[in-house]
Fold this protein.
Amino acid sequence: MLALISRIQTGVVLLNFLMPRPWIPRLLVCLLAPAVFGQTSKLNLSTGKDIFRAACAGCHGPDGKGAPDTQVGFEKPETFPDFTRCDQTTPELDLDWKAIIRDGGRGRGFSPIMPSFRDALTPAQIDLVIGYLRSFCRNPKWPRGELNLPRAISTEKAFPEDETVLTTSFNAQGSAGVENSLVYEHRLTARNQMEVSVPFAFSRDSGRWLGGIGDIGVGLKRILVGNAHTGTIFSVQGEVILPTGSRDKGFGTGVTVFETFGTVGQILPGNSFLQAQLGMENPTHTSTAPRAVYWRTALGKSFREGQGVGRMWSPIVELLADRDLLTGAKTNWDVQPQFQVTLNRRQHIRANVGVRLPASNREGRSAQIVFYLLWDWFDGGLLEGWK
């Protein structure tokens, strides 16, 4: 093995001496790495570090920061990673990295500059490389992407995100009405996220449609526990909901509301997961809007195509409860089955559709059809990663 690597290095030195452009040898190493490593992988490269240096360092650099532009011989795309930057690497799942190593950049809609190592590396060797790549991030405060569980329709996630979600619901029976919510989430640091939610609705009254913006919310989320070994993540969030909507038209409460909640996610065996949220709404004037508590639970399971790295399908069922803190008030229980699916190759555009069914106090509460479109803009634009 050492003799073969030595011959490769000697060839690079000779090319550097003979060719007038010093980046050509490094470019050849990058492009030919899968073919060359197809030979070396049959030998005893048994550590992630050895595999990385033999097959990856030509483009990504021995330190994981990327080889210098003057040496790689191509213009690095915006998605070219710096593995030492925790904000770039920790949000991704191991299987996302496995998909790109196995199938190349094209496999996930990234640059074709990243070659496929499908025929050069065994699955075990890919796992070793990923384990070594994880070691470049030295800050343990950043939670791993495995804790980023599929988003349910109503239950808030504990993982901090860089995403935008548009949720729409409309009554399946009774009076016509359409409710929408546009949520923008932006990760600030390793464990903090800010969130802005803008609800808007349309309702039919006396034969005509009315529309307007509801009460806008601004919140801050903080991770308290993020343990990839136990598969547990726990966060708390505080939010201020401003009276920007018209109470007379039914688009707002007319008062400022302070909302606090805790949310937990737990990875279960068999690609299953559990998420739960407990919260309280505290209006500034309880004579106008009562205090209320709510509980949301989501249980789901994910299935993937493409030998475990392709399109993901996640059936989820939620159990929802809320109650006004008034004497004699009843608890509203709802069941919400749903189905989330990744839409594009990069899997940063997702959709979810479900039905919210009242399970108690059904009088005056209609079943609703609910769906959302999710854009994880950290991984690229809306039109990127489709082919």
